[in-house]
């Protein structure tokens, strides 16, 4: 009970007691004065009675934890601006599917993967009945994009044209090539063994290989394998690769030797052919075609028994 509420009733009771002419105030007189002022057992202010602070009859109820709403549905409408990670649609099941620049979580929540504007659409080319949610970079774009159209990407950078590299002349002012290509060794050199050596800028007669090509020749230490089985597998693969390379080199050497022998044999055959042609020409020059030598008599007929 608040004392401020009893201020006026007590003041009135005290003034009533002072006006009485009795020399001594009894308990009975005090009760009569308080009853006249309605201060007593019947007064709710004096007794400190409380009233209900919550309305009844279903007007207000506390929710149970098992009935907390899941708050499903659309969180972003069409043409709304989103950034990567913004939730666009919460659902149970795949009522909507992720489209352009969108992803789907394990609880089927569709979220944005890029900054742009939300688009709800259908794509009969992908599926005849499914509904998709996508994000486009330009608000006026429409989904789905035309078939075989270039994919649009946004890197948050300023678009600037890339100038074409200047064409280097094939010959330098001194008349020598500006670049020399060296092939690998062997009958069939591998493309990785190809070396491009360019003319130095500060000299017109000196060649130097480019720095980035020199960096490719440096072999760094490989990371140690975490398992002996994996290391053994790599050693086996490396052994097989080395064996194949040695076999290829051996076959290449045999093929080059065979080519050399074939070339020698063809040279001998060509030399013998030229020798025969030369002897035939000498014989034809010694015995002209018009001159005829003494003819031998015809052979005698054989007698039959």
Task: Please provide a brief summary of the model.
With 305 residues, the protein is α+β, with helices and mostly antiparallel strands. It has five helices and eleven strands.
Q: What is the radius of gyration computed over CA atoms, rounded to a whole number of angstroms?
A: 55 Å
**Which architecture of one domain does the CATH hierarchy give at level 2?**
Beta Barrel
The percent range for helix content is 25-40%
Low-confidence sequence ranges: none
The biggest beta sheet is recorded as: 4 strands, antiparallel
Number of helices: 5
Overall geometry: rod-shaped
N-to-C CA distance: 177 Å
Mean pLDDT: 81
List the helices and strands and how they pair.
Layout: H1 7-19, H2 27-36, H3 44-47, E1 73-74, E2 81-82, E3 87-90, E4 97-98, E5 102-104, E6 110-112, E7 116-122, E8 131-136, E9 179-182, E10 195-199, E11 207-209, H4 211-217, H5 228-286
Parallel strand pairs: 4-8
Antiparallel strand pairs: 1-3, 2-7, 3-6, 5-6, 7-8, 9-10, 10-11
GO cellular component, one term: mitochondrial large ribosomal subunit
Protein name: Large ribosomal subunit protein bL27m
GO biological process, one term: translation
Question: Describe it for me?
Answer:
InterPro entries: Ribosomal_bL27. It comes from Monosporascus ibericus. One of its GO terms (molecular function) is structural constituent of ribosome. Keywords: Mitochondrion, Ribonucleoprotein, Ribosomal protein. This is Large ribosomal subunit protein bL27m. The protein is an alpha+beta fold. Among the domains are: about 5-45, no CATH class; about 75-135, RNA polymerase II/Efflux pump adaptor protein, barrel-sandwich hybrid domain (OB fold (Dihydrolipoamide Acetyltransferase, E2P)); about 180-185 and about 190-215, no CATH class; about 230-265. The protein has five helices and eleven strands. The chain has helices at about 5-20, 25-35, 45, 210-215, 230-285, and strands at about 75, 80, 85-90, 95-100, 100-105, 110, 115-120, 130-135, 180, 195-200, 205-210. The strands form three sheets. Strands 1-3-6-5 form a four-stranded antiparallel beta sheet, with no helix packed on it. It has a four-stranded mixed beta sheet with strand order 2-7-8-4, with no helix packed on it. It is rod-shaped and about 200 Å long. The protein starts with 6 loop residues before the first helix and ends in a 19-residue tail after the last helix. The mean pLDDT is about 80.
């Amino acid at each position: 009970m608040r004392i401020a509420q009893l201020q006026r009733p007590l003041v009135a009771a005290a003034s009533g007691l002072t006006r009485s002419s009795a020399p001594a105030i009894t308990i009975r007189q005090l009760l009569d004065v308080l009853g006249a002022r309605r201060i007593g057992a019947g007064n709710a202010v004096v007794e400190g009675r409380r009233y209900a602070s919550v309305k009844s009859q279903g007007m207000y109820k506390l929710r149970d934890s098992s009935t907390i709403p899941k708050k499903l549905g659309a969180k972003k409408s069409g043409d709304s601006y989103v950034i990567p990670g913004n939730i666009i649609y919460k659902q149970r099941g795949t009522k909507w599917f992720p489209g352009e620049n969108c992803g789907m979580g394990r609880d089927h929540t569709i979220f944005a993967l890029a900054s742009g504007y939300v688009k709800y659409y259908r794509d009969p080319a992908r599926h005849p009945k499914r509904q998709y949610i996508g994000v486009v970079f330009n608000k006026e774009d429409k989904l789905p994009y035309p078939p075989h159209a270039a994919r649009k990407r946004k890197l948050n950078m300023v678009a600037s044209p890339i100038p074409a590299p200047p064409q280097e002349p094939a010959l330098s002012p001194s008349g020598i090539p500006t670049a020399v290509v060296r092939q690998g060794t062997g009958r069939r050199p591998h493309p990785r063994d190809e070396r491009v050596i360019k003319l130095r800028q500060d000299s017109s007669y000196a060649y130097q290989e480019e720095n980035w090509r020199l960096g490719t020749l440096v072999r760094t230490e490989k990371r140690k394998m975490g398992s002996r089985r994996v290391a053994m597998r790599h050693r086996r693969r490396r052994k097989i690769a080395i064996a194949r390379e040695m076999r290829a080199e051996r076959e290449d050497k045999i093929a080059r030797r065979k080519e050399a022998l074939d070339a020698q044999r063809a040279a001998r055959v060509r030399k013998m052919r030229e020798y025969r042609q030369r002897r035939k020409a000498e014989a034809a020059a010694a015995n002209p075609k018009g001159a005829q030598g003494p003819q031998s008599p015809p052979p005698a007929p054989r007698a039959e028994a």
